[in-house]
Amino acid sequence: MRPLTEDESKVAFEKLANYIGKNLVHLVDRQDEPHCFRLHKGRVYYVSEASMRLGISVARPNLVSLGTCLGKFNKSGKFKLHITSLDYLAPYAKYKVWIKPNGEMPFLYGNHVLKAHLGRITEDTPEHQGVVIYNMSDVPLGFGVTARSTVDTRKLDPTSIIVFHQADVGEYLRDEDTLF
Amino acid sequence: MSDSDIGDDEDEDAPITASNFEARSLALDAMAAREAQLDAQELQLVGQADVDEFEGAEDMDNDEEEVDAPEAVGAILPTAEEREDEKRVGGPEVHVVQKRMRECVRILKRWKVYGVKSGRARSEFLEQLVLDIANYYGYNVFLAEKLFQLFPVTEARSSEPYEAIEFFDANEVPRPVTIRTNSLRTRRRDLAQALINRGVNLEPIGKWTNVGLQVYESSVPIGATPEYLAGHYMLQAASSFLPVIALSPQPHERVLDMASSPGGKTTHMAALMQNTGIIFANDANKARTKSLTANVHRLGCKNVVVCSYDGREFPKVMGGFDRVLLDAPCSGTGVISKDASVKTNKTERDFTLLSHLQKQLILCGIDSVNPASRTGGYLVYSTCSVAVDENEAVVDYALRKRPNVHLVDTGLEFGRSGYTSYRGKSFHASVKLTRRFYPHVHNVDGFFVAKFKIMKRAKKEKGEDEVKQGVVMDEDGPQEEIRFDEMGDGQYIQEAKRRRLKARGLRVPPRSHAAGAAA
């Protein structure tokens, strides 16, 4: 477990900013309790400093996880957000997409969001923008990247893809072995 | 009888006075007589119902007198040849066993009435009953006997079913599916509404928990709904609420869960602590920490550190916890309905090894607690087993080994209190504060919960401690003071000296000389 290096922080923060934009400062400078980012076995954990200090006493091979896992660095140094980061993305997300009940299950099985399943979308979403996906009762289900801007979606046919799937809560069941 | 019947009707609710109490007592006598008659009829009916499938007892359906005939009662037990025959054909037929079990139970329950006349020993009936249970329910004989002995054979009224048989029957039936609302994400009412909309039929479990829901039937898989994936609830047996309720962790505490996978109890604790403080969730099995981590993240618990140590390393890794939950690895005799392989694969050795491990773990757990904690200083020990040597015996061991520890009330409203004496072993009197749960009584998995309060270690002079112990031992009035007796012990001292010299490889003087010197 160690703090992120300059380069690592840059890569990770860029990825996070893609979803929550300027709200990133709320994660870095928390009002309630100081939190920090820690790297352990290639994964980035976001954890309160008090927990981190106590977690130090656990030896490296025995430590499995602490706080919330945001994502991991792959071997080429890119940062991939995991579904576990949804807890922090959802409250701060700038752009949101709501999907209809009949689109919930297809999305939770790892499919992209089609126009037919689109319930609502934030008004001025640009193209290739990170969005958090909710169902109609405002439960966050995952996140993805828009394929078209809000304006362009109007003219698309119902089977075309609106949001490219990146992560969904179904991964807790599907990828339990590889996620952690 | 008719007179007393009338009296009965008239005075049922009236207060007892000098004028009517004779009539009342007559009425009660009559009622007892009627009940006895009903019992007799019931027995006869049972005998009649089964007689066609049991050729050996044609005479049974005729009359109660004949049922009680010594030969008939004795004939229930198979002879040695019959047993051999049964073995040859690969065990007796199911209905024969069933019938024999019922008869044995009936006789044992009213041993004074039926059994004494039979001329057979009571132990013979017991032995046969255990064998039949093992056969009928598919247990190995060792485990069948172990579980059977949990429920003492009492001279109960014959209308009451026999408890051990009830227990074995309950193990064949699955317990209801229950879920726990994750209060970090939603409220029980909202969750219930959301699930009802998906076609799930559910209801609150009971008054003792405000987060539990019992699922009756569901048109969708309950472990894969969007609500489940979003962490609004956890699939969790009702019994595993109990240790967490007993522990009742408070916000801003430091808590240890020594054997936590798959995380049902850990996440429950995090919810009770409202994501403050810190929870160390430990599990010795690294593969199982994956599902633990997944559940911790899915339910949004942010104050959890997951680690993978052997639980016995714990006070060394970290101590000073306000509360510790030890849900010890166990034989699983309480969850046979979930995992039937327990019936056959547990032997005496497993129980010895497990209780040894549990004893080590509980001491480690106690040592990890901070006795100076302002809010806590508690340890909860729980198992999903009903065996006494994994439960009361372990608790008793901990009480003996750690004098600064005592049992406190678990705070659970239901459950039976633990045994203070069991088959010749007697435990500390406070063991009755522990709680046992049975599938046939409470409709939860078989479970055991004990709550300890850890106090500061009293600093005592060494001599003082010894004196105190002497007082405790001293039960039959004042005794002679025990002190060092140089004359009597000289021989032993010499002997010990010899041994010490020998161990060092030195030559020792011959024994006769040493003994003579001592004398």
TrEMBL record, chain A:
A cellular component annotation (GO) from this entry: nucleolus
CDD domains assigned: Nip7_N_euk, PUA_Nip7-like
Superkingdom, taxonomy of origin: Eukaryota
Record localization: Nucleus, Nucleolus
Every PUA domain range: 95-170
Gene Ontology biological process terms in this record: assembly of large subunit precursor of preribosome
Gene3D superfamilies: 3.10.450.220, PUA domain
Example of a GO MF term: RNA binding
Keyword RNA-binding listed: yes
InterPro entries documented for this protein: NIP7_N, Nip7_N_euk, PUA, PUA-like_sf, PUA_sf, Ribosomal_synth_fac_NIP7, UPF0113_PUA
UniProt keyword list: Nucleus, Ribosome biogenesis, RNA-binding
Role of this protein: Required for proper 27S pre-rRNA processing and 60S ribosome subunit assembly.
UniProt family annotation: Belongs to the NIP7 family.
Subunit relationships: Interacts with pre-ribosome complex.
Record protein name field: 60S ribosome subunit biogenesis protein NIP7
Organism the protein comes from: Multifurca ochricompacta
Automatic annotation (TrEMBL), chain B:
The keyword S-adenosyl-L-methionine is assigned to this record: yes
GO terms of molecular function: RNA binding; rRNA (cytosine-C5-)-methyltransferase activity
Signal peptide residue numbers: none
Binding site for S-adenosyl-L-methionine: 283, 310, 327
Residue positions of the active site: 384 (nucleophile)
Stored InterPro entries: MeTrfase_RsmB-F_NOP2_cat (IPR049560), MeTrfase_RsmB-F_NOP2_dom (IPR001678), Nop2p (IPR011023), RCMT (IPR023267), RCMT_NOP2 (IPR023273), RsmB/NOL1/NOP2-like_CS (IPR018314), SAM-dependent_MTases_sf (IPR029063)
Disordered, as annotated region: 1-20
Localization (cell): Nucleus, Nucleolus
One Pfam family linked to the record: Methyltr_RsmB-F
Major localization class: nucleus
Biased composition, class Acidic residues, residue ranges: 1-14
Domain SAM-dependent MTase RsmB/NOP-type: 167-455
GO biological-process terms attached to the record: maturation of LSU-rRNA; rRNA base methylation
GO (cellular component) term, any one: nucleolus
Alphabetic keyword roster: Methyltransferase, Nucleus, Ribosome biogenesis, RNA-binding, S-adenosyl-L-methionine, Transferase
Coiled coil: none
PANTHER family: 28S RRNA (CYTOSINE(4447)-C(5))-METHYLTRANSFERASE-RELATED, NOP2 YEAST -RELATED NOL1/NOP2/FMU SUN DOMAIN-CONTAINING
NCBIfam families: nop2p
Family classification: Belongs to the class I-like SAM-binding methyltransferase superfamily. RsmB/NOP family.
Annotated protein name in UniProt: Nucleolar protein 2
